[in-house]
Amino acid sequence: MTVVARVVADASFLIALLNPAETHHGSAVAYLAQSNHHVAVHPVTLAEVLVGVVPAHQEESLLSDLESAGVSSAPPDVVDAAAMARARSTSGLKMPEAIVLATALAMSAGLATFDDRLRSAAQRQGVTLAV
């Protein structure tokens, strides 16, 4: 595992972290336990993960769980629309994943993801894979 100073996580990492039934749950938990690095999540990615708990009115509980695990929302303006559009255009990723890639690039951060397409695109852009 590569150690990086800052990490941006995508929805696949967060879902694995929060759901013990997910295949990569152990890897996500182990990464956070072994690192003391800031893990940031773009607000759009956070919203994507929250969609699953909204019907049960568990948004605040999920946000609290993430914060306790050392995961926080990146400032909404950490990456601009042009950078997100460039990431989408050059990577072939769908917009939610392109936003994660653009955020990692803007923050000069590593990437925590279990999404193979995002991993490949990140590597092509020189982003370090943390997980």
Fold and architecture overview:
The chain is of the alpha/beta class. It contains seven helices and four strands, in the order E-H-H-E-H-H-E-H-H-E-H. It has helices at residues 11-18, 25-34, 43-50, 59-68, 81-91, 95-107, 116-124, and strands at residues 6-9, 38-41, 71-73, 110-112. The longest helix has 13 residues, at 95-107. The chain is globular and about 35 Å long. The model has no long low-confidence stretch (mean pLDDT 91).
Total of domains: 1
Strand-residue fraction?
5-15%
From the N-terminal CA to the C-terminal CA, the straight-line distance is: 7 Å
| Count of discrete alpha- or pi-helical segments spanning 4 or more residues | 7
Which ranges are low-confidence, i.e. pLDDT below 50, for 5 or more consecutive residues?
Answer: none
CATH top-level class:
Alpha Beta
Strands of the widest sheet, in order across it, are: 3-2-1-4
Q: How many strand units? A: 4
The percent range for helix content is 40-55%
Per CATH, the architecture is: 3-Layer(aba) Sandwich
CATH topology: Rossmann fold
What is the arithmetic mean of pLDDT?
91
